[in-house]
Amino acid sequence: MTTEGLFLSQLAVKDAILVTVRSHRGSVPRELGAWMAVFDDACVGTIGGGHLEWQAQAQARAQLNGEPPQSPQRYVLGPSLGQCCGGEVVLQFERVTAADVTRLGQAFEGVRQSWPTVALFGGGHVGLALVGVLAPLQLQVRWIDSRDEVFMQPIPGNVCAEHSDPVHSAVSTLAAGSLVLVMSFSHAEDLDVVAACLTRQRERADLPFIGLIGSRTKWATFRHRLQARGFGDEELAQVTCPIGLPGIIGKAPEVIAVSVAAQLLRVVGSIHTRFGETSRTT
């Protein structure tokens, strides 16, 4: 279950104070829109941890117990808070109840939909590990394979598992702006998916990232075969292979998955450099 889903499921049975970062200046631990839900006996989410979060939790629980609301509140992240960030954070405290579940659910969904979709072709060991890494993130994942039996159960809430045979036929139906990762069980399938992505790029130019799992040797072979299909050097330059951040040691599926997920977040940051500054829950 996602953090948002856990919050809403608990909110359905008891009240909470929703603490949200409404503005900030200077160096701070979390971005605009970051939130934490404080219940009488639990917290869901985070506004950055440390003494700031501890004070916010104490203030929220005081409001749950009937203290008059004090919102918004400004916090200076200096010696008085035991944090040396040096910036300022303004927090909003809002009492929410079961009556707010639908409204908040719609707000969370709106934030989630503003993130790009990851189109993941392949349900093998790395694909499975990558889905697990992406499950807690805002990214929507469209998980595609030509085999039905490969998808994990239960499917994470941000993942849509889809059977496609031939697998590359799904490329034409991807949402504009999708970040594509190709890691099927077959090099022949990988080649067809990459070719379909490059064909789509000719027509629409709306896939900002096409990543192919494999070595430089694999990519050299694929380049030759794609050139034989009529793709030029500029088109082939749109494919990233190998994938993952450089310098990461290890080839275990979980290591590759973390490296690739970090690369995806870097791509998202380059596309939406101020995404965190426009995300809000309310």
How would you portray this structure in words?
There is one protein chain. With 282 residues, the protein is α/β, with parallel strands linked by helices. The chain folds into two domains: 3-100, no CATH class; 112-272, NAD(P)-binding Rossmann-like Domain (Rossmann fold). Helices cover 35% and strands 20% of the residues. Helix 4 links the parallel strand 6 (117-121) and strand 7. The two termini are 21 Å apart. Residues 273-282 have low confidence and may be disordered.
Order of helices and strands: HEEEHEEHEHEEEHEHHEH
- Which stretches of 5+ consecutive residues score pLDDT under 50? 273-282
Tally the helices: what do you get?
Answer: 8
Taking all residues together, what is the mean pLDDT? 88
The CATH topology of the largest domain corresponds to Rossmann fold
CATH superfamily annotation of the largest domain: NAD(P)-binding Rossmann-like Domain
Strand order of the largest sheet: 8-7-6-9-10-11
Tell me the strand percentage band.
15-25%
Structural Rg: 22 Å
The major beta sheet can be summarized as: 6 strands, parallel
N-to-C CA distance: 21 Å
Helix/strand structural class: alpha/beta
Features of the shown structure:
282 residues, alpha/beta, Rossmann fold, 2 domains, six-stranded parallel sheet, five-stranded antiparallel sheet, disordered C terminus
Question: What's this model, at a glance?
Answer:
The protein has 282 residues and is an alpha/beta fold. The chain has helices spanning 3-11, 50-64, 101-113, 125-134, 187-203, 216-228, 233-236, 253-271; strands at 16-25, 35-38, 43-45, 73-76, 88-96, 117-121, 140-145, 159-163, 179-182, 209-212, 239-240.
